[in-house]
Amino acid sequence: MLRNARKLCPDTRAGTATAAGPGPRTDLSTATEHGTGTRASAHPNTGPDTDTRPNAGPGPRTAAESTTGMGASSRTDVGAPTDSRTDTAARPGAAPATGTHPNPAPGPGSGSEAGTRTDADDESAEGAGPVTLGVLQRFLPGSSDGWTLALASVAEDGDFTGEAAALGRATAEVHGSLAAALPVRKLDGGALERIAAAMTRRLEETAAEVPAVRPYADALRAAFDDLSKLGASAGADSAVTAQRIHGDLHLGQALRGPDGEWVLIDFEGEPARPLAERRRPAPPVQDVAGMLRSFDYAAHHSANGPWAARHRDAFCAGYAEVSGTDPREQPVLIRAFETDKAVYEARYEARHRPAWLPIPLSALARLATSST
Asked: What is the pTM of this model?
């Protein structure tokens, strides 16, 4: 069972009508080998759909009754009333109606101890093993998503730092829960080189497709070169670790309940990426980078850049309070993963929302001049 499970939820919307029994507020263990459905989203890291807001989270799932290993069950009524978001169509690249679900579900032998998982294990998971039939999801009445709250703060040039810090703490708690329940492994120099090579490849593909990225390409490539060297220079005690993470973390994937607590939702990862890649362990800083980019999007969406810096720092400080590791003290990692995210966003915006391309471009310009 995952610790701090109340901070996690496979996919819960404030407006999704569900019937949920008593128990923890949310529980990642509900994402068992018996849960899937279709989802919709519109943020800069997904394919096109009807919602043009950046970092807006997915719409409600529709699924039959599902039962978890805890014995709890929940029923989601197809066509049930939802909140103001109506983006309920299946998204290109989303998980299939049946098959292995990307949500992180503890499997045999995972328990709370650290373990080992190979790339081959991840790749073979797509075509073997149990299929997914449904996902238990809880209803959080009166909750608000982080994107909506952040936009309201930006518009007023308000102080959202307390909420940002609390969200950082919640993210660190979720990472701790995932690390306790699912395998964790250290990344050697070769693994980091492969990650850096994949980032470099995405940069080159994006620069070829988006001319506005080309002036920054050489400087951005240096961030990935630094990442590839990190493993070779790190000792055994300071090696980079990889674990199951959220995989698509942004403000729209966080709900704040009436009690002020944050809950992270929708652990499918980025639907445009292959399922095996989404299930593969990754450095937790990848999620941190995604949230930092989301604060940047919220601020630049309303032309209030200074707001982003304050709230990015607050998120990192809150994360450090729980994890004991401040992402800002891992400059090589955070720069590489944030750069990779901004490159991803630039390609998306150029394809689907050209008017928004300046947002990731401004991040790329900043990252191109930053040093590690």
From this structure: 0.71
